[in-house]
Amino acid sequence: MTDRIVIKSSREIELMRVAGGVVDQVLRELETMIEPGVTTAALNERAEALVREAGGIALFRGVRNPQARFPFPACICASVNEQVVHGIPQDRPLQAGDIVSVDCGVRLKGYCGDAARTFAVGRVSAGVQRLLDVTREALDIAVDEIRPGRQWSEVARLMQAHVEDNGFGVVREFVGHGIGQEMHEEPKIPNYYDRTQRGGDFELQRGMTLAIEPMVTAGKPAVVLGDDTGWPVCTKDGSWAAHFEHSVAVTAHGADVLTDGHG
């Protein structure tokens, strides 16, 4: 697998940081808009404007999925409550106590940035807030544990243990990915580990750029398509889900987060 992973130069990583900065700007501004009554369609409209003003291209619009009836139609994925990923922005207002996972990808000057965050809509229950906290902590564990020479499975085990020790589920069907000039590059980056993955494990190397994105469920981890469009992915048992993602570069000293707005 490692022979298919594209190692990036310092120049390429800096270009990815610029694209990642636009993603961070979008997510930060959308966070200020999220309150009861706002629609995910309004969030998408603002994201569209910010990406356009930055001179970027929305990565998700036009993506095709063999199971879907049409290409993805929006700038962001906005997944509400039991939706895990690939939620299409809608005109239905968000309600107090909801959660919404916003995933944003941007191509700028030929390089990509991709990140996601799950936001509370007003006040949420303690259990829902714990779901958000644990998912974010799983991503933080990955960032803290990355270093050259380590097998990805070692990091994934720690992420999975943290999630499951807190009583939540780790989605298996959707995982992270390499990123660079394309949104999806090798390798696939699971947030869990089992023996069937041995052939897909890889050693972290300086210059790898990875989109790491734990998706965590409050109930069982199984997912299904949420409607006949073939896009929104929902938990099978109807439990709520959270999703956090950063694009990172592997450096000699650890992980360099490219989508946190820091130069």
Structure description:
This protein has 263 residues and is α+β, with helices and mostly antiparallel strands. The chain has one domain: Creatine Amidinohydrolase. 27% of the residues lie in helices and 25% in strands. The protein is built from 4 helices and 15 strands. The protein has helices at 10-33, 40-53, 126-145, 152-165, and strands at residues 57-58, 76-80, 83-85, 99-108, 111-120, 169-170, 176-178, 185-189, 209-212, 215-217, 223-225, 233-235, 241-243, 246-251, 254-257. A 5-stranded antiparallel sheet has the order 8-7-9-14-15, sandwiched between helices. Strands 1, 2, 4 and 5 form a 4-stranded antiparallel sheet that branches. The radius of gyration is 17 Å and the shape is globular. The relative contact order is 0.20. The model has no long low-confidence stretch (mean pLDDT 96).
Cα end-to-end separation:
31 Å
Radius of gyration: 17 Å
Question: Strand pairing plus helix content: what structural class?
Answer: alpha+beta
CATH fold category name: Creatine Amidinohydrolase
CATH architecture: Alpha-Beta Complex
Number of domains: 1
Low-confidence stretches: none
Q: What name goes with the CATH superfamily?
A: Creatinase/methionine aminopeptidase superfamily
Largest sheet: 5 strands, antiparallel
- Read across the widest sheet, the strand sequence of neighbours is 8-7-9-14-15
Q: What is the strand content?
A: 25-35%
* Number of strand segments: 15
Mean pLDDT: 96
What is the share of helical residues? 25-40%
3D shape: globular
Give the C-level CATH assignment.
Answer: Alpha Beta
